[in-house]
Prior knowledge:
The structure holds three protein chains of three kinds. By secondary structure, chain A is mostly helical. Chain A has five helices and no strands. Chain A has one domain: Four Helix Bundle (Hemerythrin (Met), subunit A) (Up-down Bundle). The mean pLDDT of chain A is about 90. In chain B, about 40% of the residues lie in helices and about 20% in strands. Chain B contains 17 helices and 20 strands. In chain B, the strands form four sheets. In chain B, strands 2-1-3-4-5 form a five-stranded parallel sheet, with helices on both faces. A five-stranded antiparallel sheet of chain B has the order 6-15-14-11-12. In chain B, a hairpin with a 2-residue loop joins strand 17 and strand 18 (about 500-510). Mean pLDDT of chain B is about 85; it is low at about 385-395. In chain C, strands 1, 2, 3, 4 and 5 form a five-stranded mixed sheet that branches. Chain C has a single domain (about 1-95), classed as STAS domain (Transcription Regulator spoIIAA, 2-Layer Sandwich). Chain C is α/β, with parallel strands linked by helices. The interface between B and C is medium-sized, with 22 and 16 residues.
Amino acid sequence: MSSYIDSNALDELRILMGDELKLLYETFLEDATAKVQQLEGVAAEQDFDKTGRLAHSLKGSSRNIGAFYLSDLCESLEKSAKIESSDNWKFLISDIKDSFERTAAEINHSILQ
Amino acid sequence: MKILIVDDNKVERLILLKVLQQEGHQVIEAETGTQAIEAFFEHSPSLVFLDVLMPDIDGYEVASKIKSAENSMWVPIIFLTSLTDAYDLAKCIECGGDDFVSKPINPIIIKAKVNAFSRISNLYETIEKQKREIQFHNDHLIQEQEAAKRIFNNIAHRGCLGAKNINYHLSPMSIFNGDLMLATETPMGSVRLLLADFTGHGLPAAIGALPTSEIFYGMSLKGYAVSDVMMEINSRLHRVLPRGIFCCVITAEIDPFDKTITVWNAGAPEAYVIDMENENIELIHSNHLPLGITSPLNFKYEPTVIAFSENHKFLAATDGIIEATNSDGDMFGGDRILETIKSNISQPNLCETLINQIVVYTEDADQGDDLSLVEITMPEVSLQDEVQKHKSQAQTGTLDSAFSMCLRGKSLGKFDPVPMILQNLVECRELINHRTRLFTILSELFNNALEHGVLGLDSAIKNDKDGFAKYYQLRTDKLTKLKEGFVEVKFDHRPLDEGGEVVFDVIGTGSGFNLEEVLNKPKNSFSGRGLPLLMDLCHSLECFDEGRHVKAVYRWNVED
Amino acid sequence: MSVASALSSDGKVLTISVNGRFDFSAHQAFREAYENLDSTPTEIVVDMVDTTYLDSSALGMLLLLRDHAGGDSSNIVLRNCNEDIKKILAISNFEQLFKI
Lengths: 113, 560, 100
C-alpha cells in the first residue's frame, strides 16, 4: 500500500511528541488547508513571489510531519517560482491539491482516529 | 537554559518546542520578527533559534537588531534554515548569527547544537565573571593606590619644591616608582634638597618614603645638620627596610650666606654643579653605599663643598633618565645628559630641556612618567621676612627659665648642641616664630667659639675659590684630634612687659678674637659675615675676656 | 635571562652564573641557586661573564645573597664584570661589600 506519510518519520514523531502527536497533525492540517487554498489563488494570478513563499512554507511543514511526496511537489513549485516559470503550474497545483487531500485523508484515518 | 524559538510555522515550532522541553529547557515562542525582538528583551534568553523567512521582519534583521542591542552578555543565535544556497547561509553569519541548522528539524542535531552552545556560553560566563572579578580587584587596587598617593603626597610634598629657584620634574605616581624629592628651607636660611630613589616598584618602594621624609623635614626644621639627618635616615632605613631594598640618595644644601653648595651622593648617578658663566660642569660622584645597607657604625658622611653663586646651578636626576631606552635598546646614558647640559648651559629650565630630549630620543611621550629630576639655583635670602608657619598661641612654657650646657674635648666634635638648646628655648611657644633668628644667633655664637676660639681657625682661608673645601677639611682634622677645650652655652630667658629677652652667654677656650677688627672688614668679604649678622639680629652684642666670652641679647615682642 | 649554579666537588665553592639581563625577572632563579644547598659553601662566586646588564633590583638580590651568606662575614666574589656593570657597582659603592 502506498502511503502519503512516511512510516519511519511517523514512528520517530510518535516517540518525540507522545500525547501531542495528534495536536501536531491537527495543526498541520489547519495550516496546510489554508495554505493550499491560498496557493491556488496566488498561482492563478501568476504571483511568483507569493507562490514561492507559500510553496516554501508548505514544503517545510509537510516534510516535518513526514509527508515527503507532498513536500517534494511543493519544492518543484518553489523552484519554478524562483526562476519565474509557470509553464507546469497547472499540473503542479492540481497534483499538490490532490496529494494534500490524500495525505489529509490518511492523517484523519490512521492518526487522528 | 532559557531558549527563544522564532518561527512563523506552527508545525515546526511544535516539534522544536518538544525537542527542547524534553531536554529540560525553558522555551519562549515567537511567531514573527517583531514578537521575537520584544520577547528577547523581555525574557533575556540564553540562546535563540531563529527562522530566516518570516512574513514581517526577516531573521537577518532580527539577528542584527538583537546583536547590536546586546549589552554585556553574549547570546548565541542559531538560524533555522531550509536554504541551501551558500550565499544565503553565509549571510546568516554575517548579520550576527552564530550558527545554522537545516530544516527539517532533526532532534539529534538540535540537541547537539544546544549542548555545544551551552558549553560555549558557560565559558563566556566564566570569562565574564573573571573579567568582573579582575575589574573589581583592579578598581580596588587603583582606589588603594590613590589613597596611598594622597597620604604620601601630604607627607612628602609639603616642602618648598614650589619655590622660584627650583625646577623639577616628578610624576604624580613617582612615589610608586620609588622616587622621592624633598626640599626645605632650614632655620639657618639655607635650602636643603633631597632626591631619593628606592629600589623596586609599588608599595615596597614607597614604604621607605614615609620615615625618610618625616626625618628630613622634622630634623631640618629643628636645625640639625645634613650629616645628622642622613645618619638618622640611614639608621632608620637600615632598621625598617627589608634586605634587598635600599635607597640611593643625593642631598644638596645651598647656603646663600657662605655662597656654597654642599653635595653628597650615596649610590645615585652623578649630580651636576653647573657654572653657567664659565661653562664649567663639576660632577659629584657617589662615594657611599646607598642608605639602608650599612649599620649606623659604618656610616660616613663625606660631602663635597663647592663655591656657589647666582651663576651656578645644581642638577640631579634618578637613574630613570640614564636608563631611558630607545627602540634599538640603547640607553640615553650619562654622556648624553652631559652633552645636553653643555649645549643648553644657560637655559633657565634645564629639566624641561632634558625631558624633551628624552621624549625625542625614546620616541615615547609617556617616557617622562618614569623620570625624576630637579635643578636649583641660588635662593633669595629670606631670613628676616620668614613666612609665619606657626600661629602664636597664648602659652608661656619656658618663658621664665635658664639653661646651660657645656661641651668638652671629644664631645665638641661629635655633638651639635644647637638644635637641642633651641628645642629648650622654643618650648616657650611665643618663640616659635623666632626660631630661624634664634637658630642663627645660637649657631653663629657656637661656631665662632668653636672654630675661631677652640680650634683657632682663620676664616680668611675661605677667601679663595677652593678655600671652603680647605677650611672644612682643616676643621674636620682638628676636631678629630681635639682632646681638650670646651664651649659653654647659656641662655637666660625672662619676660618683659610686651614680650621677653633672651640673654646668651657663650664662653670658650682658645685665643678668642677681636670684635672690632672683624666688624671693620669689608662687607662683601667671603668670611666674617657671622658677627655682623649677629649685630643685626641682636639687641646688643658684647665681648669679654679678649673675645673668649660673647654676650648676646635678643629681644622679642608679642606682636613679632 | 637564565641562572645556572654549580657547587665544587668539595662543596666549598658555589658558582652562580647569570646569563643576559640581571633584573627582577631573575629573582626566583637567583634565589633558588643558593637556597636549599646540601652543604654550606665557604665562598660564593657570582660569575657575570655572560651578564649584559644589571639593575637596582639585581643589586638588591646581591644584598640578599650577602645576608644569606652571613652578612659582614660573607665571602662573595663578583667575577668577570663588564665595564657597564662595574660602573653600576661603583656608583653604589658595592666594592665595600663584595670582592669585584
